[in-house]
Design goal:
The structure holds 2 protein chains of 2 kinds. By secondary structure, chain A is an all-alpha fold. Chain A is 74% helix and 0% strand. Chain A has a single domain, classed as Orthogonal Bundle (MetI-like fold). Classes of the chains: A mainly alpha, B alpha/beta. At the A-B interface, helix 3 and helix 10 of A face helix 3, strand 7 and helix 8 of B. Chain B: Pfam families: SBP_bac_11.
């Protein structure tokens, strides 16, 4: 049983989605994780809880609310329409926004843990040597917290690839636009096309195994802090 | 020995209690959920049996039943899956019948679409057209037939958004994300009167009849509750409820009754 053209198209779309989401999340999550790691504000608790919420809410429920919120009558929908972008559901960028919400904790938390583990000393030392905040971030924080960033990248990417419930709710299964691998497998199973479901699932399992193997091999080598996911 | 006797008595009484209170497990296609809730309410008024309903997609139920899921009755959204279960030898002979025939409606939640839905569909004056995935849902397959009949298959294809089933198609339209959607008439009638927008009832000559069959499964061999519920579904009273919810019913169920 080999993959059909439709299956291969879903694989490419999934990789495109996961790459886009990971890059955008790293840009967004880094300042957020930095703030969470360094702040003493009362707001740290509530914000951490909000970031972690997608770990708790069923994806289909989250997807349903996003469908309402991104719709023409929802808050996000009103905003995107005002910007002249139309509405997000059933579009690739709609999936990007939804996946960013869903994978956020997997990117924020490893980076936050890594930054917290650095502590104040190296930063204070750099400051006394006259390094500005931006300089400090790139020359001190980034190299020291690198393992956290790598973990965040791998987890964010893998989590987006495996995401299903939200895409099902707001995607509309449009080929080349919103039909990703997880939805395609589900459709195969629902249509009783078990052979095709097995083939595509096999690809997914092999991919996930390799990603996680990479992560754990890297962790063993590093023995770094803030990298204790799944152990 | 006394202890053994007591233990035996306890086990026996627990066992009888369990069998007394055991509900009838029924698997129901998602499009029939409104009607089924009402039917169960009516049935339980006059019967001692309790019904436990699971709603979902027929395809999933088929797979689960093949793997030994403990459902006693299966209300499918089509005839194909009861057919397949029969061939697999999982169905009690002569139990199968068509409990409802689905009707398609094109629905819009937009108030400015009132009374112009047919025109809007034919002119392509809409942003998205929601439909149930034709590969998975009988309502989706019927939708394709209607679009073919109206020669709209090619012109609308770029605007399709597929729901996994009619329940999701309904969400796409009700949330305002799709201007138009092919849903089951039963979703718009019954307890949930059309809250928003309006619909165009698709004439039934435009597609094959969406015949929905129910079967009594092997696991219900000894279940009197399941048989009682199936008898109730056959009754004039139940068929009348099903018709109220926007389904056609086969006249044979109305035997000897004047409509």
């Amino acid at each position: 049983m080999s993959l059909t053209d439709g299956d291969i198209a879903t694989i490419w779309l999934t990789l495109r989605l996961a790459t886009t989401v990971t890059i955008l999340l790293l840009l967004l999550a880094t300042p957020l994780a930095w703030w969470l790691a360094r702040t003493r504000s009362w707001f740290k608790g509530p914000l951490s809880a909000i970031v972690a919420l997608p770990l708790v809410l069923p994806p289909t429920v989250l997807g349903f609310y996003l469908l309402l919120a991104m719709g023409p009558n929802g808050a996000i929908g009103q905003f995107t329409q005002a910007l002249g972008l139309g509405t997000l559901p059933f579009t690739f960028w709609g999936l990007v926004v939804a996946s960013m919400v869903y994978s956020m904790p997997f990117v924020v938390q490893p980076i936050q843990n890594a930054i917290e583990a650095i502590g104040n000393r190296p930063l204070e030392a750099a400051a006394t040597l006259g390094a500005g905040p931006i300089d400090r971030f790139f020359t001190v924080v980034l190299p020291l917290a690198k393992p956290g960033f790598i973990t965040a990248t791998i987890l964010g990417f893998a989590h987006t690839v495996g995401e299903f419930g939200i895409v099902l709710m707001i995607g509309g299964s449009i080929p080349g636009e919103t039909r990703v691998v997880s939805v395609q497998i589900y459709d195969h199973v629902e249509a009783l096309e078990y052979a095709q479901a097995h083939a595509l699932s096999g690809v997914m399992i092999a991919f996930s195994f390799l990603v996680l193997l990479l992560l754990y091999t890297f962790q063993r080598k590093r023995k770094a802090v803030g990298m204790t996911y799944g152990r | 020995m006394k202890i053994i006797k007591w233990l035996g008595l306890i086990v026996f009484s627990v066992f009888t209690l369990c069998t007394e209170a055991k509900p009838v497990h029924v698997a129901v296609a998602a499009n029939f959920s409104n009607s089924m809730k009402r039917l169960v309410t009516e049935f339980e008024k006059t019967s001692d049996y309790q019904i436990a309903i699971s709603f979902g997609s027929s395809g999933k139920f088929y797979a689960q039943i093949k793997q030994g899921a403990p459902y006693e009755l299966f209300f499918s959204a089509d005839q194909a899956k009861p057919d397949a279960l029969q061939k697999d030898g999982l169905v009690i002979a002569n139990s199968r019948f068509t409990y409802a025939i689905g009707r398609l409606a094109v629905w819009s939640a937009r108030s400015d679409f009132a009374n112009t839905i047919e025109t809007k569909l034919k002119e392509g004056a809409f942003n998205k057209l929601a439909l149930a995935n034709p590969k998975l849902a009988p309502y989706g397959a019927a939708t394709l037939e209607v679009l073919k009949y109206l020669s709209l298959l090619e012109s609308t294809q770029s605007k399709w958004v597929r729901g996994e089933n009619v329940a999701q198609t309904y969400q796409f339209v009700s949330s305002g994300n799709a201007d138009l959607g092919f849903v089951a008439l039963s979703q718009l009638l019954g307890t949930r009167k059309v809250k928003q927008g309006s619909y165009w009832l698709v004439p039934d000559y435009m597609h094959h009849a969406i015949k929905q069959d129910v079967v009594l499964l092997r696991s219900a061999e000894k279940s009197q509750g399941a048989r009682a519920f199936l008898d109730f579904i056959h009754s004039y009273k139940a068929q009348k409820i099903i018709a109220e919810y926007g389904y056609l019913v086969t006249l044979s169920s109305y035997e000897g009754q004047s409509l």
